[in-house]
């Protein structure tokens, strides 16, 4: 069955540079620099990327960073905890807007 | 990949040629002794398909030939592996015979075979002779360890490591060396060795009070039980491609097959334990250790096979 997402397409990511090579070059250079070991380890950065991948719900990123996390030495317990951090922030971001709701409701109400 | 043969497009030999490299021996400094396929575990990554149902074990007569060989050539290190060496009846005879013949006698243990009265006797022997222990622990957590090695293995492994620490193995500054070996618990590559070592050290110390000296990380070799897992799970093509794409020409110089000989439980010689699993003999034909009158000279060609890609991926398998 044809779908919009094909795992093999991830390997063609670099082709995005064909019609705008300078921008793509800058992006990929930046991308590679971001994930290199710095103040954070490559393993820690991969865990952050995995969590963000779930937030933006990108199947390519989830595939790539699940593999990256395993290959950088993270285990499923740590990866799952990272997703709960995302979930807490996403849920919290909704809930904290309840303050706005309450303020507006208070202003409108007797 | 050719699905019918399970082969990659480019053989390992062709890849070497494309990089103007060849696989030849350096000076032989190490002897690896495979004592047989009997094991109390049946790990999912095992290229030899060792396990409780296997009965292959090195008899005392072959052990005598191995000891005689060690006396003839004085290897820098001798590395005992299996299966589980502890299950081999005459292991104490072999260990006592080899210890005076090499500055570094290494024994690879699955940890669980160190349990019980027999295990305790062996531990005392290892300590007395300062045998270097290299213990298998694929991951610093229960789930991944048991996915590869079987239910209940994590707790038994931690108990064995604690016992080793009590005996002085693996403690900072101790001459009783305890190293760990970690293989990925699936169709993915291992993390860089130093980063993994740091994490294992932190996790095992913090959660279990266990210490060790060095951690070695190795890629799983697509042979035996691990290959069947790859086939069954639909990961074979992707894994072989990963090994091929990750080929590091610089790793060829440090490959272990260039400086070691491997001998099986029957006394037959190979260039490495993976060739042993595939029946690829040292020198191109069956030859026994008893007939080894001189070590192969530097420059002797080593046969290659596609599983060699697992030893040249990333920083390599040395």
From TrEMBL, chain A:
PANTHER family found in the cross-reference section: ALKYL HYDROPEROXIDE REDUCTASE AHPD, BLR3452 PROTEIN
Domain Carboxymuconolactone decarboxylase-like: 21-99
Coiled coil residues, start to end: none
Source taxonomy: Bacteria, Pseudomonadati, Thermodesulfobacteriota, Desulfuromonadia, Geobacterales
Residues spanning the membrane: none
Annotated source species: Geomonas oryzisoli
Name of the molecule in the record: Arsenosugar biosynthesis-associated peroxidase-like protein
Domain of life per record: Bacteria
